Amino acid sequence: MTVFGWLLGRGPRIGVIELHGVLSSRLGSLNAKAIGPVIERAFRSCKGGHILLDIDSPGGSAVQSDLIAGLIRRHAEESRLPVHAVIGEVGASGGYWIACAADEIHANAMSIVGSIGVIGGGFGVDRAIARLGVERRLYTAGVNKARLDPFSPERPQDVAFVKELLADLHERFKGWVRSRRAGRLRESEEVIFDGSFFLADQALRFGLIDGFSDVDQLTRKLGGKKPRVRTFRPRRRRFLGRLPRLMADALLDAIEERPAIRF
User: Fold this and answer.
1) CATH number of 3-118+177-262
2) What would the pLDDT profile of 223-243 be if each residue is shown by its tens digit?
């Protein structure tokens, strides 16, 4: 639809916010810095209408999931606009966290939904370097500064620390789903919150979603045969322009000595 038709057409305005990709603070990923201005622009442009979250994400950063969902809820409460989420191929982990920011969640019957859990891990190469005759020399100030160092033997207290951290994040995830899906969950928490992902037809039975639809069907339902629809997405730089930064980020990911903890 042209901007002219969007402004002067009949029926409610429907703003579709595209939320695609892995959640990460890295350039080119789905994150609050990139999508924040898009969310603000969509809500500002759709007064008296509806907001649709077009979600296709397997998850990723717990922080970015929470930041984006928080932005959506704040704008929804300030503008009093109804928010609908539509899950495409996948709305799992952090993708489902964002979907729960909506008042209603829809998906294709074969979409992947849920995965309400937290994962973390890494690699231990201390035995490998020992066989090679390599000596690890590490100097720290702070007894736990080198916690989970992949070149040192794993310590039981470090494993306990990480498990407690993961459990705390999981409780936050469960609390968010409970609050946003209050009165709609129809399966035991042992099933819903064990980290499993489900096909959307099963997720519907469990109360994780509200119905089946796609973006086109839902916009027609909300706006009639000729809905005033406008899609809002972050501006993407050309791939060649992003390549040096992407290569640098990949190198940093490879050499960082921290465990990956994500939704």
Assistant:
1) 3.90.226.10
2) 887 788 999 998 765 545 555
Question: pLDDT tens, 138-157?
Answer: 888 998 898 888 888 889 99
Burial of 112 (0-12, 13-18, 19+ CB in 10 A): buried
d(CA 83, CA 146): 44
pTM given for the model: 0.86
Tell me the residue type at 134.
Answer: V
**Which segments in the chain show pLDDT lower than 70?**
1-10, 236-260
